[in-house]
Amino acid sequence: MCTGVALYDTSDSSPLAAFYIGKSFFAAIGMSITGASYYEYLSDGDHDLFEVAIEELEERIINGKVTSYWIYSDLRGGLPWDAAFTYQTGEYGNFPHIGAHCDGNIKEVYGAITDWLKNVAEQFHVPYGIVYTAEKITAALHYAAGENCTSMFPFENGFAFQKEAPGMYAGLGRYTTSMLRMVYPYNVLNGKHLQIKVVHQTLLDWINDDKERGVLRLLGEDRWIWEVKDEHLTAVNMALGEIGILVAWQPERSKKRIRKLP
């Protein structure tokens, strides 16, 4: 199992500020940084990743030569990495977001990761963030970027988020204002999220009306943490998905037995 973090609409954070966020992620989870890579355009207009030492990546970022990059811990040797951090802009076929992922026992790293995210959100403008679990780190990586039709729930459309994101599909990115991607164990929300209408009340009031809908905590100016226990995630997602405020919601298909012809 592994834990993934995705932060969206992060274009207000500079590549250098994000670099130090990334280094603090590895310090928080107690893993050493073993390498890094950055994106660069080739002469034919395509792009590729180039491997460098972490010190060289920092220098290239400071000199304005690099905008999108990966930092990773690869103690075992080979892919997938043990942990990874990425900063993506609207270049190279992607859209602005930050991803941070760590392989290992969720019970051992969840507290460290959520504490790290809380500190990041307090210091930087993070309009929307999620923490989720995945079976493999590759799935966590793809999920943050909305790639490979990766989903975390049986009632989730794996294609829907990518089409909503800015970038290839020129999506509206409503998950940072008037919708949510889905509901996860740990969610960073802004004031616009809490004013989303849930039938005849706001999301803020809807959450506070029932303790099984999770706990809201003020994080800073116009930012909140919404934490939902695992045993209540399905009910919360279904309630909000059925009224149309979850980007990736789709009703779970019933598994009916097909009768064979005699």
Oligomeric organization of the protein chains: single chain
Looking across the biggest beta sheet, what order are the strands in? Answer: 3-2-4-5-6-1-7-8-12-11
The span between the termini is 45 Å
- What structural class do helix, strand and pairing data support? alpha+beta
Shape type: globular
Helix content: 25-40%
How would a textbook summarize the main sheet?
10 strands, antiparallel
**How big is the Rg?**
19 Å
Number of helices: 8
Low-confidence runs of at least 5 consecutive residues: 255-262
**Secondary-structure element sequence?**
EHEEHEEEHEHHEHEEHEEH
Number of strands: 12
Q: Tell me, rounded to a whole number, the average pLDDT.
A: 91
- Beta content comes to 15-25%
What does it look like?
The chain is α+β, with helices and mostly antiparallel strands. Helix content is 30%, strand content 25%. The longest helix is centred in the middle third of the chain and has 18 residues.
Short description:
With 262 residues, the chain is α+β, with helices and mostly antiparallel strands. 30% of the residues lie in helices and 25% in strands. The protein contains 8 helices and 12 strands.
For the structure shown, list the relevant keywords:
262 residues; alpha+beta; ten-stranded antiparallel β-sheet; two-stranded antiparallel ribbon; disordered C terminus
Reconstruct the topology from this structure:
Blueprint: E1 2-8, H1 15-29, E2 35-41, E3 47-52, H2 54-62, E4 69-73, E5 83-88, E6 97-103, H3 106-123, E7 128-134, H4 137-145, H5 160-164, E8 186-190, H6 191-194, E9 197-198, E10 201-202, H7 203-208, E11 215-220, E12 223-227, H8 230-241
Antiparallel strand pairs: 1-6, 1-7, 2-3, 2-4, 4-5, 5-6, 7-8, 8-12, 9-10, 11-12
